[in-house]
Amino acid sequence: MDFKLTEKQQQFREEVRDFLKAEMARGIYPFGSIHLAGALSREFSKEVSRKGWIGLAWPKEHGGQGLGYTDRIIMLEEMFRMAAPMAYHYMGDRQVGPGLIHFGSDFLKREFLPKILNADACFALLFSEPEAGSDLANCKTTAVEEGDHFIINGQKIWTSGGHYAECGWVLARTNFDPSISKYNSFSEIIVDMKSPGVTIRPIINIVGAHSFNEVFFDNVKVGKGYLVGKKDNGFRQIMTNLDYERAGIDRLMQNYRVKEVLLEYVKTNKRNGRPLSGDTLIRDTVAKIEVEYEVARLFVYYVASLLDQGKIPSFEAAMGKTICTLFEAKLADVATTLMGLPGLLMPGSPEALFDGVVCESYLWSPSYTLQGGTVEVLKNIIAQRGLKIGGK
Amino acid sequence: MDFNFNEDQRILTDMARKFFEKEAPKSLVRETMHDRKGYSPPMWQKMGELGWMGLAFDEKYGGYGGSFLEVAIIFEEMGRAAVPTPFFSTVILSGLLLQDSGSEELKRKHLTKIAGGECISTLALVGKSGVYSKEEIGLEAKAVGDHYLINGAASFVPYAHVADNIICAARTSPASGEGVTLFIIAGKAEGIEIIPLKTIVGEGVDCVVNMRDVKVNQGQILGEPGKGWECIERLWPKIAVALSCKCVGGMKKAMELTIAHVNERVQFGKPLAALQVVQHMCAEMFIKSETSRHAAYHAAWLISEGLDCEKEAAIAKAWCGEAFKDVTKIAHQLTGGIGFTEEFDLHLYTKNAKNLELLFGDGVFHRNVVAGRVGL
Questions:
Q1: Regarding beta strands B147-158 and B139-144, do their DSSP bridges make them parallel or antiparallel, or are they unpaired?
Q2: Minimal CA–CA distance to A290: which of A264, A326, A263, A265?
Q3: A289 and A376: one domain?
């Protein structure tokens, strides 16, 4: 048992901090957003790429740095702490690259890994559909083979970043034999989002932000070389990929600013002439948030340590994401309530404290326990894979 | 970072678990709860023979110079066994207090006996209000000539009735230095009256200690006169972490009992475990036990490395104390009627969980420490 970060890891954290301070000081990037779509800057991603920090945990033979997942968590923790604009390279770095390294052909690796590493391609994930949310195997989008091509038809929804990504990672049905299990009927295909037949329609969420989209495929032609991994094996590939997605620190840290703001508010404000920090109930409320944050943070590092030992965390990653999203969903609720009426002021409003970030975060919060697997789906995984009860 | 036990720690876990499974069957646990001694002397003796009372202490006092992690493991396994013993009061409340704050002479005299498993010792800290604060201490020591006379009452003193020594926290009068002074007194000293209480965990665990003109001399003072509370505060993180580890063991076992039940119990033609709502409740127990495990051992590791751990220890106790209780609540809901019976083992954990939640500071108490550490 050893909870210490290595000397090298501690130095790396400092290096990331220094880098971010310098980049932020240039004043040309959108730092400070609590959501990915508000944090888009290809130029910033280029700077991260120059440091070699895209693909940090990818193997060296694929152009990565070959560092560990713990190193990656350290970097992301610092990036999120400053709310750095990572949207352009985020999906490619986290999910698409590792997916291609695992399953992709040499052609796809050559074609896309350098683009991701150099911040020359931004990816969107196109899995969910109107009829396939938690039940992803109910996808209706089809990819029919026609000579050297697939012809894709169907509709995707909740596509984050679909409006700015150049590339789409699409799950589509490729096997139509009804005697074959649904789980063996899907494939993953990379699609150029500018292809003829792709239509993107924005969806405005309850925050008033455009972060996700509906995407329509109308006879979209894609070369067979863009099939990822084996045909009909897409569902399995996605499940492995999701374990990596859930192993992250995103859901713990994306609203870090709200936690900071909450502390600052309590430290600097008085009510009825008395400092808030002297109020027993308020102290307990803030400390509850802090305790939950630290407990979740420790768990994220635990999951990273499993990955570094060569294990694929499955129920552990689901558990980590559950803890983090429940924390994140609670954070803004606690902060708005504690601030009272000023907690209702939206970004841009006169009198808004901290740019209205607390209220904005509250409106985002219902999405946290939904994306990347709802808390309920994650609890199924924890029970079935972790406790081995009630499996199918 | 490495969250795993090393080989030695795995062996110790395994050994301790097997020991308690053999030596502390649930029949013994039930018997002990209703026994006025509050512990099993033969089992206590065997624990001593294994050297567990000396795990935490320097070799020069007869200990094994082990790290706090080894002590933490014993606590986890004791929590799993749910067996009452004077281990906590002897090793943590007395032994570590002596090791950290006692003079060389006191250590040679008392710590060697504790480390050797030759005595039971305890700490009389709180007054009858049961509140952990300087102001609520119920004993007072007055300097009379070259000695002191102690009067008053301490309560919730674990195993005072069977203790060879009681360390007493007493308010010292202004003349002899304002504050709290710790005295180490023989359990059978003249003027001491001990009354066992019947608490949620048993009839022979906690006691009221009444003192009437108990005479003590300067040599019995532990630490500096008037600075006793500071010694207690220094010990607090270790207390909190030991108890957190006990919670971890307890909640894991309570969860296992419950999972066995939902797998076996058939309703609507299938095991309860086939119902998603039941799976989710089990997942919640699992989340609590896994997070608690990491929080407790993280703090234990900090202690073993000699690093500051005030915040982490407080996080551990606030989290684990409430998590254990929450796990027993879910466990009761899932085990239904059978879980509410004396014959089913769950209640042993329900009772320990409530006790451990409140012992040496509940969630609010420890979160107040956390609040201080984030600048409030």
A1: antiparallel
A2: A263
A3: yes
- DSSP readout, B55-66? TTS-GGGT----
User: What part of A 255-284 touches B (C-beta under 8 Å)?
Assistant: 263, 266-267, 277, 280, 283-284
User: Cβ separation of B282 and A387 shorter than 8 Å?
Assistant: yes
B6 touches chain A (CB under 8 A): yes
Find the domain containing A181 and state its range: 125-233
Contact (CB<8Å) B1/A4: yes
CATH number for the domain including A203? 2.40.110.10
Chain B environment of A295 (Cβ under 8 Å): 291, 294-295, 315, 319
Residue-wise pLDDT tens digits, A313-323: 889 999 999 99
Task: Tell me the C-alpha distance between A274 and A268, whole Å.
Answer: 11
Domain membership flag for residue A252: yes
Q: Which 3-state string (H, E, C) describes A91-158?
A: HHHHHHHHHHHHHCCHHHHHHHHHHHHCCCCCEEEECCECCECCCHHHCCCEEEEECCEEEEEEEECC
Residue-wise pLDDT for A340-389, tens only, equals: 999 999 999 999 999 999 999 999 999 999 988 899 999 999 999 999 99
Residue B68 structure tokens: 């706090």
Q: In 3-state terms, what secondary structure has residue B131?
A: coil
ipTM: 0.91
Please check whether residues B350 and B274 belong to one and the same domain. yes
* Tokens describing residue B241: 């972490």
Q: How far apart are the first and last CA of chain A?
A: 36
B147/chain A closest Cα distance in angstroms: 41
Same domain, B196 and B244: no
B309 touches chain A (CB under 8 A): no
Residues A254 and A135 in one domain: no
- What would the pLDDT profile of A76-110 be if each residue is shown by its tens digit? 999 999 999 999 999 999 999 999 999 999 999 99
AA identity, residue A85: P
Q: Minimal CA–CA distance to A71: which of A241, A246, A239, A249?
A: A249
Residue B346 near residue B335 (C-beta atoms within 8 A) = yes
- A49: in domain: yes
How far apart CA A180 and CA B72 sit, in angstroms, is 53
**Residue B82 to residue B84: CA distance in whole angstroms:** 7
Say if A161 falls within a structural domain.
yes
Judge if B209 and B291 occupy the same domain: no
- In this structure, the answer to whether residues A201 and A130 fall within a common structural domain is yes
Pick from A203, A209, A253: which is nearest to A347 by CA? A209
Q: How many domains does chain A have?
A: 3
Global confidence as pTM:
0.93
CB spacing of A2 vs B263 below 8 angstroms = no
